[in-house]
Amino acid sequence: MKPILALFVLLLYSCEAPLGVGSEAMLRNDNPSIPVLVVVEKDTYSKLVKTVEARDDAGYRELFATGRVFSVTSNTKVLIIDQRLDMKQIRILEGPSRERAGWVHESRLWRK
Q1: CB neighbours of 7 closer than 8 A, spacing ≥ 6?
Q2: Is-contact 44 69, C-beta < 8 A?
Q3: If you ran DSSP here, which 8-state letter would residue 95 be given?
Q4: How far apart are CA 93 and CA 97, in angstroms?
Q5: Could you say which of 30, 38, 51, 73 has the lowest number of CB atoms within 10 Å?
Q6: pLDDT tens digits in sequence order for the chain, 112 residues long
Q7: DSSP label at residue 94
Q8: Rounded distance, CA 82 to CA 89, Å?
Q9: What string of DSSP letters covers 31-47?
């Protein structure tokens, strides 16, 4: 095989299509023992980030108490059902939160 053709074949097989609507994926966290936070409405994500950055414990608890945020175990299988910029809407496919939907940052997903 010619070197250029071999390089093309290598690149072709090493490139994976991005995770898009209809793809199954796994939720992930940098530390697998820490659950992944899922927001019910996409707009809640920025509020969650702000409460964490501000160390606003009361605001953080309020997001959970009002049901706007829930947590899911890392390595849970999900289906991507929508996407907007770097956010993906997911449907949980297994575990206690099965069939719930919410939004996560795309960095929280990996190909299963």
Answers
A1: none
A2: yes
A3: S
A4: 8
A5: 30
A6: 555 544 444 444 445 667 889 999 999 988 889 999 999 999 999 999 999 999 999 999 999 999 999 999 999 999 999 999 999 999 999 999 999 999 999 999 998 7
A7: S
A8: 5
A9: STTSPEEEESSTTHHHH
